[in-house]
Design a protein that fits this description.
Elements lengths: L1 H19 L16 H11 L4 H16 L1 H4 L5 H5 L4 H16 L4 H16 L13 H17 L5 H23 L11 H18 L6 H19 L11 H22 L7 H13 L22 H12 L3 H16 L8 H4 L2 H7 L11 H4 L1 E5 L4 E5 L8 E5 L6 H7 L12
Antiparallel strand pairs: 1-2, 2-3
Helix pairs in contact: 1-11, 3-6, 3-17, 6-7, 6-8, 7-8, 8-9, 8-10, 9-10, 9-11, 10-11, 10-12, 13-14, 14-15, 14-17
Length: about 425
């Protein structure tokens, strides 16, 4: 534990020193965040062949959004936007912008994506009025606006190309200052709020760096520092779990996996051999209910996943495991979604939010391969989380049992948080 604390502190000093002494390394060029112009052409090609199924789901999602614009497109009034929890608008904008990147000739889609982006930027505040101390929804909006700006850059007016980065930087700096002042979420390293907000902060800083936004490098350094702490802490977790439960784990891995992707893409930092990542598929396999229509609710009492997990599974097979088991489970879960959905129903936001990342991370050349019978049935023990499961088979009507017995935080993080003398908690550096 002491060694890990020192490793994180060494990383902190080295990283901050490097970023404080260097200038901007990103040119004023878009898109660049998730893919560049050359890669965009390859994505368009995949949309009509190897990725046609996910492209079709994206099209269905967009069709639903446009059909019910009053629910899914940001409202004209800022008061309406801030009156209730609003994270879905930023998430929806990513779906609109990404789908437009695959269909650049679709003028209706272009109009809807630009309308959503412009409305969000026009608001004076992104804060939910009833939750002034909660930055999560605000981070979702920053996440969506930053990604959409990067994708839609060449379809914006000249003045928008200058003004929108200012707004993105304003919101990024707000979260940066909140982190500096140790906001509540910033003291909970392995937690969906912290991971979501820090990744949004990093994305906002990345897309504004090439626009001569002075604080961008310091913001990137802070976000990277905090996310590297998350990954350092997860080295203590031996079973690929997060103590929040399976549903909230997908909330965390939505941003955690994106951070790992961005760290490799923009900084050349590889985490694909991280031991927690290597074990995460086993966690998802053991906690997926027979029939693949849901997961256990220990920890968060939710019987399904909040974000994904198909995108996260595609990520694992493309970058970490490369053996087909994760692609297989993603296919089983996707099939179950359609099998269990009521007839003639629209795709729901919970199903479409991760579709852009499913598309981005799907490796069509990795053939889905079912795990061994031992991995699909029988007893599985997630020793760190303290959760055991039993399946008689993978069939929908199979017997399934689960129980929890262990540290609330999980064994590894409990050992980090509480010192060996039992004198109380110590803040991780």
């Amino acid at each position: 534990i002491q060694h890990s604390r020192k490793a994180v502190q060494d990383y902190t000093d080295r990283d901050l020193a490097m970023y404080r002494s260097t200038g901007s390394h990103l040119p004023l060029e878009h898109p660049m965040l998730l893919f560049d112009g050359k890669e965009a052409k390859e994505l368009i090609r995949k949309a009509s062949n190897s990725h046609i199924q996910t492209h079709g789901l994206l099209q269905s999602a967009v069709e639903t959004m446009l059909k019910h614009a009053d629910k899914y497109i940001p409202p004209a009034s800022e008061l309406d936007f801030t009156a209730s929890w609003n994270e879905h608008y930023g998430n929806n904008l990513v779906v609109l912008a990404f789908t437009f990147a695959l269909e650049p000739e679709n003028s209706h889609l272009e109009k809807a994506a630009l309308k959503s982006l412009r409305r969000l930027v026009s608001y004076g505040s992104w804060q939910v009025a009833s939750a002034p101390g909660d930055d999560v929804a605000r981070a979702h909006t920053l996440f969506g606006v930053s990604i959409a700006f990067d994708i839609l850059f060449h379809h914006l007016h000249d003045f928008e190309r200058h003004e929108i980065p200012k707004r993105i930087q304003e919101e990024t700096h707000f979260l940066y200052r909140r982190a500096e002042k140790n906001a509540g979420w910033n003291r909970q390293y392995v937690h969906n709020h912290m991971i979501t907000i820090e990744t949004a902060l990093l994305i906002g800083a990345l897309v504004t760096e090439g626009h001569s936004m002075a604080p961008s490098l310091q913001q990137q350094a802070m976000a990277r520092l905090h996310m590297e702490r998350v990954l350092e802490l997860l080295r203590h977790v031996t079973d690929g779990s997060i103590d929040e439960g399976v549903a909230y784990t997908t909330y965390s891995t939505r941003s955690l996996f994106l951070y790992i992707y961005l760290a490799q893409r923009h900084y050349g930092v590889r985490h694909f051999d991280h031991p927690w990542l290597v074990r995460h598929l086993s966690l998802l396999l053991s906690t997926t209910l027979p029939g693949s229509g849901g997961s256990i609710g220990i920890g968060d009492s939710n019987p399904t996943w909040y974000f994904g997990p198909e995108a996260q599974l595609f990520f694992l097979d493309k970058y970490v495991l490369q053996e087909g088991n994760a692609n297989w489970l993603a296919g089983e879960i996707r099939e179950a979604r359609f099998r269990l959905a009521p007839a003639n129903t629209d795709l729901l936001p919970v199903d479409w939010t991760m579709l852009p990342f499913e598309f981005l991370w799907y490796a069509a050349h990795i053939t889905p391969v079912a795990p061994s019978a031992d991995d699909l049935s029988g007893i599985a023990v997630n020793e760190d989380w303290g959760v055991s499961t039993y399946k008689s088979s993978v069939l929908a009507n199979a017997t399934f049992l689960s129980l929890k017995s262990g540290y609330i935080l999980g064994r590894g993080l409990h050992n980090v948080a509480v010192d060996s003398t039992g004198e109380g908690s110590q803040k991780y550096p």
